[in-house]
Design goal:
It is a single chain. The protein is mainly alpha-helical. It contains five helices and two strands. It has one domain. Helix 3 packs parallel to helix 5 and helix 4 packs antiparallel against helix 5. 25% of the residues are buried.
């Protein structure tokens, strides 16, 4: 598993150990914690991109979806994508807080719950979108045959 993903899903004790280990690991004139900090900051842009894409593709598919149930689920995707993005932003803020307080004993806030919620919401939105696309393609094939 990706080290950042491992940290996102780590509990308080293991997460603190990982951050301390990264702080003590030299890398390119600095340490691995600096790399993680920079990647976490860059993740804010990635959040905007993936939330925007989910919103766009869900909206476009919603315009083509004939089934009311799937159309409503695609509409729900708009809210769930925004919630997932919000959870990701809070998660990143907490990670940056943990990175900043690496030398403070006992200070570490686990992001495990936020990460679980975020990935669950993202998985759901992608599943709904794919289901709608597959059903739409089957529907369009039947129209032309």
């Amino acid at each position: 598993m990706n080290p950042i993903a491992s940290l996102e899903f780590a509990g308080k004790k293991i997460g603190k150990e990982m951050v301390c280990a990264w702080y003590d690991s030299p890398f390119a004139g600095s340490n691995l914690l600096s790399v993680a900090r920079n990647n976490t900051r860059a993740d804010f842009l990635y959040i905007l991109i993936y939330v925007g894409l989910i919103l766009l593709y869900s909206y476009l598919q919603m315009q083509q979806e004939k089934r009311i149930f799937l159309n409503e689920l695609l509409r729900l995707n708009l809210l769930l994508a925004l919630l997932a993005g919000l959870f990701d932003v809070v998660e990143n803020v907490l990670l940056l807080y943990n990175f900043r307080h690496v030398n403070d004993s006992g200070i570490y806030i686990s992001t495990m719950i936020l990460s679980s919620l975020k990935f669950s919401l993202l998985g759901w939105t992608v599943l709904v979108w794919i289901s709608s696309v597959i059903r739409s393609n089957k529907f369009h094939r039947k129209e032309f045959n």
